[in-house]
Design goal:
The complex is a heterodimer.
Chain A lengths: L1 H6 L2 H19 L4 H7 L1 H24 L4 H5 L5 H13 L4 H13 L4 H13 L5 H8 L1 H28 L10
Helix pairs in contact in A: 4-9, 6-8, 6-10, 7-8, 8-10, 9-10
Chain B lengths: L1 H31 L3 H10 L2 H14 L7 H10 L4 H13 L2 H11 L2 H24 L4
Helix pairs in contact in B: 1-4, 3-5, 3-7, 4-5, 5-7, 6-7
The chains are: A mainly alpha, B mainly alpha.
Chain lengths: 177, 138
């Protein structure tokens, strides 16, 4: 059992950690579990239902976009490439842990760090799987605004990274392992 | 092909649902501790630019998957917290978190995540500040 837990992914471990923290909080602040669930039942049902939709979108994109898509379209630190990198990040579904393998492959293929920063920024800030949540809770306008904001934030993050690297350059590191 | 899609969806869904439910439990537990009086006091005593800064720092250190922040955000919106603060929290929560920081150190060395953290701090603040003005139209 312990061996199986040790072998499980970081998301599963994180899940157990969150359950543990919740139990501790409930015990410290004397929170009634059943009352907590009943009073939040609307939001719980909505989030579970939206998660199922989010996973459908995520699955569709996984099968529609080829794995080497990002690698094909990203090369230099040009502003347009920083924008494409952000856009690709926005379109790439999945938790951040799942995209590090993609980022490592991109790095090995010679993609520069500012491009990776733009990609990571776009990927983490918003994504297609967030659409049901954000539209469902805050409305379509809010979601469109968040996409626009992400498309601006990605290139700015990359440009700031280039600026910082002038004073504190990256050390090249072997990413083979 | 259809079988592959169903298998992939099934695997992803249950794994994600476990994490989402765990995160949801954490979020509603934390949400039950939030009181409107406390939020009002914080709103009145802390200037808005500083609220944005605190929100992004809080986002950076908050654990858990992306979807769990929504119940907390809804509660904050109900309490009348500025949309700029909500944007800073939502962006800060995902841009860098302690666990990914260490993953990046492992992959790229310590300079990359340090610089990304600094950059994320600046762009998240900018996003929050812009939203303070744009938020009226959303």
């Amino acid at each position: 059992m312990i061996q199986k837990f040790k072998k499980s992914g970081i998301d599963i471990k994180m899940g157990f950690l969150l359950i543990g923290i919740s139990i501790v909080l409930m015990m410290i602040f004397n929170i009634n579990f059943s009352q907590l669930i009943i009073s939040n039942s609307d939001i719980i049902i909505k989030i579970i239902y939206l998660t199922a939709i989010a996973m459908m979108i995520s699955t569709a994109i996984h099968f529609l976009i080829p794995e080497n898509f990002a690698e094909k379209h990203l090369r230099d630190n040009k502003l347009s490439h920083l924008f494409y990198a952000t856009l690709l990040g926005v379109l790439t579904p999945g938790p951040v842990y799942a995209i590090y393998p993609i980022v490592i492959v991109l790095k090995k293929k010679g993609i520069k760090n500012p491009i990776l920063v733009a990609f990571l920024t776009g990927q983490t800030i918003i994504g297609p799987a967030r659409a049901p949540f954000e539209i469902g809770f805050f409305g379509l306008k809010f979601y469109i605004y968040r996409i626009l904001l992400a498309l601006i934030m990605g290139p700015i993050a990359a440009l700031l990274f280039i600026f910082l690297s002038k004073f504190w350059p990256d050390k090249e590191r072997n990413t083979e392992s | 092909m259809t079988k592959d899609i169903i298998l992939y969806y099934n695997k992803k869904l249950w794994r994600t649902l476990f994490l989402v439910c765990a995160g949801l439990l954490f979020a509603i537990t934390l949400g039950s501790l939030m009181k409107i009086e406390v939020v009002n006091v914080l709103k009145q005593s802390i200037p808005l630019p500083l609220q944005i800064f605190y929100a992004e720092l809080l986002g950076f250190i908050s654990p858990g998957p992306r979807y769990i922040i929504y119940p907390i955000l809804i509660k904050l919106q109900e309490f009348g917290v500025n949309l700029g603060v909500i944007i800073a929290l939502i962006s800060g929560h995902v841009l860098i978190e302690p666990s990914t920081f260490f993953v990046e150190v492992g992959f790229f060395g310590y300079r990359f995540p340090f610089k990304r953290f600094t950059v994320s701090l600046i762009v998240t603040y900018l996003a929050g500040a812009i939203t303070v003005f744009v938020g009226k139209f959303l």
